[in-house]
Amino acid sequence: MGLPNASGDLSTEVEVDAFRRLFPLRFFEKHLLESIRPDARPLGRARDTTIALGAVASANGSALAKIGSTTMLAAIKMEVMTPSMETPDEGCIAIDFHMPPICSPIVRPGRPAEAAPVVAKQLSDTILSSGMINLKELSLVSGKAAWMAYLDIYCLDADGALFDAALLAAVAAFSHLEIPVVSLNDDGKIVLSEGQGLSDREPVNKEKRKVNLGSIPFSLTCILHKNHILADPTSEEESIMETFVTVVLDSSSQLVSLYKPGGPVLAYTSAIQDCIALTRQRVKELRKILEEAISGMEVD
Amino acid sequence: MEIDREDGRSQNQLRPLACSRNILHRAHGSASWSQGDTKVLAAVYGPKAGTKKNENPEKACIEVIWKPKTGQIGKLEKEYEMILKRTLQSICILTVNPNTTTSVMIQVVNDDGALLPSAINAACMALVDAGIPMRHLAVSICCCVARSGLVILDPTKLEEQKMKAFAYLVFPNSVHSVLPEGSPSVQGEPIENGIITSVTHGTMSVDDYFYCLERGRAASTKLSDFLRRNLQQQSTNSSKAG
Amino acid sequence: MAAKPGSAPTTYSPNVGQKNRPPIFKDNDLDWVRPDGRGFHQCRPAFFRTGAVNSASGSAYAELGNTKVIVSVFGPRESKKAMMYSDTGRLNCNVSYTTFATPVRGQGLDHKEFSSMLHKALEGAIMLETFPKTTVDVFALVLESGGSDLPVVISCASLALADAGIMMYDLVAAVSVACLGKNLVIDPILEEESFQDGSLMLTCMPSRYEVTQLTFTGEWSTPDINEAMQLCLDACKKLGKVMRTCLKDAASASQE
Predict the structure, then answer these.
(1) Which end of chain B, N or C, is less packed with Cβ atoms under 10 Å?
(2) Which CA distances in Å does A3 have to A6, A8, A19, A209, B40?
(3) CA of A161 to nearest chain C CA: how many angstroms apart?
(4) What does the domain layout of chain C look like in residue ranges?
C-alpha cells in the first residue's frame, strides 16, 4: 500500500511543499480542478492592489503601486528641451523601465534582465498610443522650449504581472504630476521661479498645474492554461504556465492593446472575450483605487 | 465602404508573396521571404548542444537574433526578438531535442510595413528547411484599422503610419492530415482559428479587433495554402500568390 | 506616434544650479541653523523595516529624512562558475541609484566606489566560514538621495543580512559627520554635504564596540577627528538600538 498508485500520483504520499516543488504543474492543476489557486484566490480575481502617491520628493510626480507583492515605483522628472521642427508646440515623454538587481534573484548587476526592455517598449507604446497625455500641454514657448517628461519605473519586487503593475504606477505618477512654475531668464533658458523673489519676470507657466489626463489605460494579464483563465498571475504561476494574454483597455472601453506573445496554448475567440470581460471588471476596480488615492492626497 | 490604397490594391488584397528556401550554404536552414517591398532573410543554426542560463534544460531552447537593416538594436528589436522566440517555441516540438539550442537569425533586407509578420513567416520556413521538428506552421498577417473602422490587410509602411491602429496576428496553418487525438477542433472552433500571437498598436474598439481577427483568419488560409504549395515544390524557385 | 526613436534631444533641468545659491552659513558664524532645524549633534529620525522585498532571501527598507534606501540579500547561493573553490563564503555587494534619486536626473550614477565600500564595511561583521563555496549577494538601491547615503545603505544592508538569516557577529551601524568650517555636523543632508570641507564616516558593531570601517576625506585636525569619532560612536550605539528594536518587532510580529 505504500507504493504510489498506478497513475504515479504521489500526492497522497509526500508533504505538500515537497509535492509543490517536485511536480509544480500537477500541483497547480489539482487546484484548478477545484477552481481555486494556492493563494486562496478564485481564478478570475486579481491580488490586493494599493497605490501611494508622492513617494519620491525629488521628482515632480511619483507613485508606488503594489499588486500583491509586485512593487513598482514610478517617478517623473520634468526637464526642458527644444521641440523638434515638425512639432513645435509639443512636449515629449521618455519612458523607461528598470529591473534593478534588488527585485528578483535572477537579475544580476551588469546583466540587465531580458524582460526590462520589452516591458519598457510595451509601456511606451501603450501610454503614447492611449492618448492619455496631450503632448500640446507640455509646451512652454512654441518652437523654443517644451517639457520633456522623463518617466522612470523601477521594479522593486518582481512577483508576476510586471506590466500591469508598471502601467498602474506610471498612470498614478502622471495623476500626481505637478508642472512647476518656471520663467524665461535673460539667457533664454527656462528656470524655476521660486517664491515671489523673481516675480519681475513674466512666468511662462503661471501656477503649479496638474496635467489633464484623457482616457486612462488600465491592464490585466491573464494566464491561459487548458480551459482555465487565471487573472493576475504570480511569478510562480508565470514560470509554470507559459501562455499570457495582456489586455489594455482605457476608461472608455477602447482596446489599447491585446498582447499575446506566443505560448503553448492557442487563444480562441471565447477565451479572448473572457479575458476582455475580466479586464473590464478590473478596469473598474483600478479606477476606483486610483480615484481613492488621488482624493486621499487632496485631503492632506 | 471603399478605401483608396496607394498601390491600387483592394482592402483584402495581399502584396505579391515570394519565398525561397535553402539560399545560404553555411546555415542549417535558411529562407527569404518577401511581401511587396518588405524582404526578410532568416537563417537557422542548430540544434547545438547545451542551453543558456535560466533556460529549462529539459526542453530545446530557441534563440532569436534580430539584425536590423541599419544601426544598432534597440528596445523595438528586443521586443521583436522576444515575440519571435515565444512564437517559434509554441510551434516547435521542444521535447524531441532536450538541452539543445537552435539559433534563428533574422536579417531585415527592406522594411516596407508588416515587418514582424514577414519575419515570423520567414523564420517558420527556415525552421522547416533546417528540419527542426514542428507541430504545425505559423502564418502571420498584419491588419490595419482605418479611422472609419475599415480593415485593410498587409499594409505598407506608409499605411501603417497613417492608420489609427494595427494588429499583428499569428495563426497555426490549417492541418490537412488527421491528428491522432481525433478532430482538429477545440471548443467548437477549428484549430487554425486559435491565436498564437497577437500584438496590437494604437487604440481600436473591441469589435474592430474581432473584425480584424475574422479578416486575418480569412487571409491566413490563403497564406497557408501558399506556404504548403511552396513546401511541396522541391525546387526553390519562387512562386506568387494573391 | 509622438515617440521620436533614435533622436534623444538634449534637455536640462530648470532647477537653478546650487552654486548660484548663497552658502547656508557664513564663515566663523556659530549661530547658523541647520536647514532642517536639527541641532549640530542630532541625527535625523531613523525608520527601518525588514522584509520589504518578498522575492529576496532577506531585505530591509530604511528612511532617514529624504534618504530612502532598499537593500535585498540573495543567498547563500551558488558562486559564479568561474570562481575557484573557497573554504569561506563570498560577499558580493552592489549599490545603485535610481535616475530620479538626485535633484538633477541621472547624477547618482557616478558612485562606483560605494559598492566596494559597502563590501568592506560588512565583511568584518559576517561569519563567512558559515557558508563555504557559496556567495551572498547584497544589492542596494537608493530610491531617493537625501544626504549620508552610504551610511544609510550600510546600516540597512546589515539589517537585510539579519533578515536573511546570515550569521553575523553583530549588526553594523554607520554614521557620518561633516565638517563645515569650524563646526562638526552629524548625519548631514544633501545640501550640507555639498558645502562640507571634510567628511568622516564610521561603521561599527555597537554591542562589541568594534569599528569595521573608518573613512575620512578633506582637511581634518587631530582634535576634530577625535571629537568626530566619538560623536559617531555614540550615534552608532543609538542607531544600533533602533535597528535591534526593528528586528525584535519583526520577530514578535511573525510569531503572532
Answers:
(1) N
(2) 9, 9, 16, 71, 56
(3) 14
(4) 36-255
Residues on chain A touching B203 (C-beta within 8 angstroms): 129-131, 250, 254-256
| Predicted ipTM > 0.85 | yes
Minimal-distance CA residue of chain B relative to C80 = B53
pLDDT of A3 higher than 50: no
Asked if residue B102 belongs to a domain, the reply is: yes
Partners of A118 on chain B (C-beta within 8 Å) are 75, 78-79, 82
Least reliable range by pLDDT among A2-11, A50-59, C34-43: A2-11
pLDDT tens digit sequence for A170-193: 999 999 999 888 877 777 777 776
Would residue B26 count as lying in a domain? yes
Contact C5 B71 (CB under 8 A): no
d(CA A256, CA A286): 16
- Could you tell me where the beta strands, DSSP code E, fall in chain C? 11-12, 46-50, 58-64, 67-78, 90-97, 134-144, 173-180, 183-186, 198-205, 210-218
A128 has a chain C CB within 8 A of its CB: yes
Do residue B79 and residue A118 have CB atoms under 8 angstroms apart?
yes
Confidence of residue C2 (pLDDT cuts 50, 70, 90): very low
Record: contact B76-C6, CB cut-off 8 A: no
Tell which A residues from 237 to 266 touch B, by Cβ distance under 8 Å.
243, 245, 250, 253-264, 266
CB B193 within 8 A of CB B224: no
Instruction: List the beta bridge partners of residue C201.
Output: C176, C215
Domain-embedded: residue B196:
yes
Instruction: Count CA atoms closer than 13 A to A243's CA, side-chain side.
Output: 24
Answer whether C62's CB lies under 8 Å from C152's CB. Answer: yes
Cell of C39: 541641532
Angle formed by the axes of helices B75-91 and A115-129, to 10°? 110
Q: How many domains does chain B have?
A: 1
pLDDT of A117-163, one tens digit each?
999 999 999 999 988 999 988 888 888 888 999 999 999 999 999 99
Q: Which residues of B touch C81 (CB under 8 A)?
A: none
For residue range B163-205, list pLDDT tens digits in order. Answer: 889 999 999 987 665 555 554 566 667 777 889 999 999 999 9
Determine whether domain A40-299 maps to CATH 3.40.50.720: no
Specify the CATH superfamily of domain C36-255: GHMP Kinase, N-terminal domain (3.30.230.70)
What counts of helices (H) and strands (E) characterise chain A? 6, 15
B6 lies in some domain:
no
Q: Do C3 and A109 touch (CB under 8 A)?
A: no
Q: CB distance B76–C5 less than 8 Å?
A: yes
Mean pLDDT of A32-39: 91
Which chains have at least 3 CB atom pairs separated by less than 8 Å from chain A?
B, C
Q: Does C6 contact B at CB distance below 8 Å? A: yes
Which of chain B's residues have a Cβ under 8 Å away from the Cβ of C79?
none
Instruction: Work out the minimum CA distance from C209 to partner chain A, whole angstroms.
Output: 30
Q: Average pLDDT for residues C33-38, to the nearest whole number?
A: 82
Does A157 sit within 8 Å of C54, measured CB to CB?
A: yes
- Domains of chain A by residue range: 40-299
Domain of residue B133, CATH code: 3.30.230.70
The residue segments making up the domain with residue B84 are 17-232
